[in-house]
Design a protein that fits this description.
Elements (H helix, E strand, L loop, with lengths): L3 E5 L3 H12 L3 E6 L9 H4 L3 E2 L12 H10 L5 E3 L4 H13 L3 H15 L2 H9 L8 E10 L2 H5 L2 H9 L5 E4 H7 L9 E11 L2 H14 L3 E4 L2 E5 L5 E4 L4 E3 L2 E4 L19 E11 L9 E3 L4 E5 L3 E10 L9 H13 L7 E11 L6 E5 L2 E8 L5 H16 L25
Helix pairs in contact: 1-10, 1-12, 6-12
Bound molecules: flavin-adenine dinucleotide.
Amino acid sequence: MPDTALVIGAGITGISAACSLRRDGWRVTVIDRVAPGDPAQTSFGNAGLLARSAVVPVSEPGLWARMPRMLLDPSSPLFLRYAYLPRLLPWLLPFLRNSTPARAARITAQIAELTCDSVDRHQSLAAGTPAAKYLRTGDYAYVYRSRADYQSNARTNALKAAQGYAPDYLDRAALEKRFPDLGPAYGFAALYPDHGWITDPGAYVAALARHFTSNGGRFLQGEIATVTAGPRPRAILANGESLEAAKIILATGAWSNPLARPNGQTARVESERGYHLSMHDANITPAHPFMVADAQFVVTPMNGFLRAAGIVEFGGLQAPASQAPFDLLKKQLKQVFPTLTFARVEKWMGHRPTLPDSLPAIGESPDAPNIIHAYGGQHIGLTIGPRLGAMVAEIARGRWNSDTGAYRVGRRGFHPAPDSG
Ligand SMILES: Cc1cc2nc3c(=O)[nH]c(=O)nc-3n(C[C@H](O)[C@H](O)[C@H](O)COP(=O)(O)OP(=O)(O)OC[C@H]3O[C@@H](n4cnc5c(N)ncnc54)[C@H](O)[C@@H]3O)c2cc1C
């Protein structure tokens, strides 16, 4: 029987879970240290893409061999704050071990299971709510300098094709028709139909949260310091107050490690720091989002602005944003749209929550079944948010057994203990 549920975290994962639980009849409270849609959330600043074809993890085959060169190349979209390396290694080593062809193929299939119906899931979550106006459907393109560049990603392309994502191809003439302002450096694209995007991800989360509270849900602002297990688990706030519920849901994104301690061991979520530039009143509005493949950022037509978002930087949760990723985005954007002008630009850095196997943690705590984990959406956390939210509601009702399977909490590689391989 639905009872009380406390969701910690009001990003896309937490708000989706809260809406699903509420629609299932639970009395739901969401708590977050910031308001839903706040720039401090990763859900605020992403590229807005509902990337159902983005099934290949960053730890794609061969990454371990390319990584050193990428880190030394100032034009590569991979950055590392070297002082952070000792803290990163316990996560980085198993992450790289997952880039063998066999593991990458398995992980790709497991990601594809979560992304396949993402546009439908967003449509049903947002239907009839103030969030629906931010949802668009359309094509998604990967834009390359040349067909040869596309073909050099043969292994990644094959992994996608194995999941049913075989693109149409656009040559320079077709690209010019679609994106007339595209710079001459780009001559080829792989086009995937039936995608979607959110034209203001922060406003979308805020609108879903408004729907949740107008539907009887409660939102509290506060910081949770610890969570204690039990038949009715408790969340202890930093100010000493506590909240009790029949189910507590951890939807705390990149900040999950201190709260997520299945079997007394901390989880191993790392921040893949990402950057965006949002250009307001831009003179160019592309027909639909596209990924600039060599620079690894997505350009998305938003509600009144154009956003370029991407880059991976390892540097943890505490360090401030670095300047180099912004400079790189700016420089590469000039090649993408040489004639781009805009009235003002907003800069942002956020934290993608990523486990070493690039799969989310979704399920009951092995030692505390009334604590449900829901984080680790990495580069596709917006895409799969409603899916994870629906899974939380299934688990809370006991309709889905999360003790086994690829996304289970406490699986191998989940904790910082040495990974046996
Ligand atoms: C540059 C960039 C581009 C991206 N582009 C895309 C894209 O196009 N498509 C896509 O699908 N995904 C994309 N992503 C990834 C996506 O944004 C994230 O995976 C997703 O937003 C994660 O959502 P979340 O709800 O799990 O985490 P968040 O949105 O970070 O929410 C977690 C919340 O938990 C709260 N919290 C944490 N700890 C506590 C605590 N102790 N007490 C109280 N509150 C707490 C935080 O304040 C925060 O509000 C991108 C990410 C980046 C950085």
